[in-house]
Amino acid sequence: MYLMKDITRDGDPVLRARAKKVQFPLSEADKQLAHDLMEYLVVSQDEEENKKYHLRPGVGLAAPQVGVSECMAAVLVPGPDDSILLKEVLINPVVISNSVQDAALSEGEGCLSVDQDVEGYVVRHDRITVRYQNLAGETKKIRLKNYPAIVCQHEIDHLNGILFYDHINKKTPFKMDPEGILID
Ligand SMILES: O=CN(O)C[C@@H](CC1CCCC1)C(=O)N1NCCC[C@H]1C(=O)Nc1ccccn1
Ligand code: NI
User: Fold this and answer.
1) What is the ipTM of this complex?
2) Ligand 1 nearest-atom number relative to CA 65
């Protein structure tokens, strides 16, 4: 199971590299990687467990964040009460279409791989269609909006060597165009 010491931090070149496409059939190593990425999210979101292992709770984790430069990311987005909005391992994910409308988390973003806080709106698409392969190798297409869409864009960015603060406007960090949506 990954601990915080296993999370690659900003400055490590693997976070700025373009990750390699995952080949099917999945190797045993890739199956284990998918399991471990999702396991981190599940354990980190459990109050007792995350205290026991000192994990920062996460809703997404991309392979480069554990030092593996491959196109794979796990997402576990909780909904209201104990519901789950999205739980998936995205393999070779690509945003194939997006809304013109922008969105940003009103609180800004963080990253398990970036220890310092970087203030400002991380301007993203409000709605996206993502094509990816699941663990079984089936090609899937999902349409996402608001928070789940933000999370998936953050993870797909990691596979392209992009970090959230790359999207923050240095001069006007809290500027959002009038049509843009702020997500709480
Ligand atoms: O690439 C992946 N990462 O870097 C983990 C990030 C991914 C999210 C950041 C913004 C959109 C996706 C992550 O999850 N966080 N960022 C740093 C600390 C907080 C934590 C977080 O938002 N936790 C959370 C939120 C709601 C419910 C439970 N936990
Ligand atoms: Ni991140």
Assistant:
1) 0.98
2) 1
